[in-house]
Design brief:
This is Zinc-binding dehydrogenase. With 338 residues, the protein is of the alpha/beta class. It has 11 helices and 15 strands. Bound molecules: NADP nicotinamide-adenine-dinucleotide phosphate.
Length: 338
């Protein structure tokens, strides 16, 4: 079996593909012959040395895969053997084989390709928690989705549209035509204009009821300010800190310094809520994840969840895949294939 290894922090050039012996399954575990692995922004930041939860170097990144179960451990029902599945992985997903416990796998919906199935777990669970569970998005609400053209962004757009909310999104201008064709109500070019001014213009000065903000630092301050009364701010990433070498250290320091502090009395008086999401720290809640995933899979079957694949790269070209996301070129999910 092969794995994409991150031997040390650095640019995408540090990535290496290495051979390892086949994995053995233990009791209650299954082995997946991987067809596609999701590449997430957290994997990029882990390679940059900016992801606090990453294992020590060298390690293999990757939070999700799709594939076929080719070996089962003691205590696992025979019916799983040969089944197409998607799975959450606690790192190690950028590999041609993974071994996971039963509570990390979900049957692959027949209507999805393996690439699309690898695009489901992280992006859609994050978006589900942000919009439905914590964000309580209502049909009459306006939601602002930052970086709406990315993996989580398009997942959030699917769900927000199903709820019936008004959708406003920020993205690089080259993505707007596609996003509007996908049903986004308003696209804001946040790279060349002030998104706050545009949001206020679009909402008659009221702001949005829900804002999904994975940028962090100063952006969280501005997003909080842009909430309408009863509004909720979802904080779930620090993309603003992304970078390589000395530039990344400065970006990280700036992002940290600009983090807002929310006072309970201000939250109360302004009728605003803030919440955080870290999917990588929900491993102790498999029942919750299974319920959320059940709703997402139902959405796939009903046709309102449609994962968008930006590009698929072979493991050999993992560095190009990292560069592609870092250059902000992706519309939707980037996957790696063994
Ligand atoms: N907390 C969690 O559990 C969790 C789970 C999943 C994802 N996340 C976070 O959600 C965000 C999106 O993740 P994703 O995997 O779906 O990635 P993604 O959105 O597909 O990531 C790439 C996009 O992010 C935007 N971006 C903003 N700042 C950037 C920068 N400094 N460098 C490069 N691109 C930048 C770019 O789009 P524009 O055209 O809009 O600039 C780019 O195309 C990340 O911050 C990630 O860490 C958090």
């Amino acid at each position: 079996m092969k794995r994409v290894i991150i031997p040390k922090a650095g640019s995408s050039s540090v990535l290496a593909l290495k051979e390892f012996p086949s994995l053995e399954v233990g009791p209650g575990e299954v082995r997946i012959s991987v067809k596609a692995s999701g590449l997430n922004f957290a994997d990029i930041m882990a390679r940059q040395g900016l992801y606090q939860d990453a294992p020590g170097f060298p390690f293999t990144a990757g939070y999700e895969v799709s594939g076929v179960i080719d070996s089962i451990g003691d205590g696992v029902e025979e019916k799983w053997l040969g089944k197409p599945v998607m799975a959450l992985t606690r790192f190690g997903g950028h590999a041609s084989q993974v071994v996971v416990s039963l509570n990390q796998i979900f049957e692959k919906p027949g209507r999805l390709s393996y690439a699309q199935a690898a695009a489901i777990p992280v992006n859609y669970l994050t978006a589900w928690q942000a919009l439905v569970i914590c964000g309580a998005l209502q049909p009459e609400d306006t939601v602002l989705i930052h970086n709406v053209g990315g993996g989580v962004g398009l997942a959030a757009l699917d769900i927000a549209q199903h709820i019936g909310a008004t959708t406003i999104g920020t993205a690089s201008p080259g993505k707007h035509e596609y996003l509007l064709s996908r049903g986004l109500n308003y696209a804001i070019d946040y790279r060349n204009s002030d998104w706050y001014t545009e949001l206020m213009h679009l909402t008659d000065g009221k702001g949005a009821e829900l804002i999904l903000d994975p940028l962090g630092g100063e952006s969280w301050r501005k997003s909080y300010k842009a909430l309408r009364a009863s509004g909720r701010l979802a904080m779930f990433g620090i993309s603003a800190a992304s970078g390589n070498g000395i530039g990344s250290k400065l970006a990280l320091a700036k992002t940290a310094v600009m983090m807002p502090i929310f006072h309970p009395i201000s939250l109360m008086n302004e009728n605003k809520s803030v919440f955080g999401i870290n999917m990588g720290r929900l491993w102790h809640e498999p029942e919750k994840i299974r319920v959320w995933m059940g709703k997402i899979i139902a959405g796939v079957e009903e046709g309102w969840i449609n994962p968008t694949i930006a590009e698929s790269f072979s493991f050999e070209d993992a560095a190009l895949a990292h560069d592609y996301i870092e250059s902000r070129a992706n519309i939707g999910k980037v996957v790696l294939t063994p």
